[in-house]
Amino acid sequence: MVKLMVRDKESIQEAVRRFRKLVERSGIKKEMRRREYYEKPSEIKRRSRLRAERRARRTRLEARG
Question: CA torsion angle for 6, 12, 17, 19 (degrees, to 10)?
Fold first, then answer.
């Protein structure tokens, strides 16, 4: 949970900006997007496998050149 204490003489716009930064840093937005739709475990595994393959391919290409 993100808590924001509004400072003295702080405008609403500044407080909202600070709140958005706190939410972004805490990973709440990322988690909300991930949970927005149900994803089958096989799809999660497939996506992580593809990500690992891309990462391995990238490191191999960097090692060559």
Answer: 40
- Residue ranges in the chain assigned as alpha helix (H): 12-26, 28-35, 41-64
- Considering only the C-alpha atoms of the chain, give the largest distance between any 2 of them, rounded to a whole number of Å: 57
| Whether this model's pTM surpasses 0.85 | no
Three-class SS state of 3: coil
Q: Give, as one character, the DSSP assignment of residue 8.
A: T
- The pair of three-digit structure tokens given for residue 17, joined into one six-digit string: 């900006």
Q: What's the pLDDT tens digit per position in 8-27?
A: 999 999 999 999 999 999 99
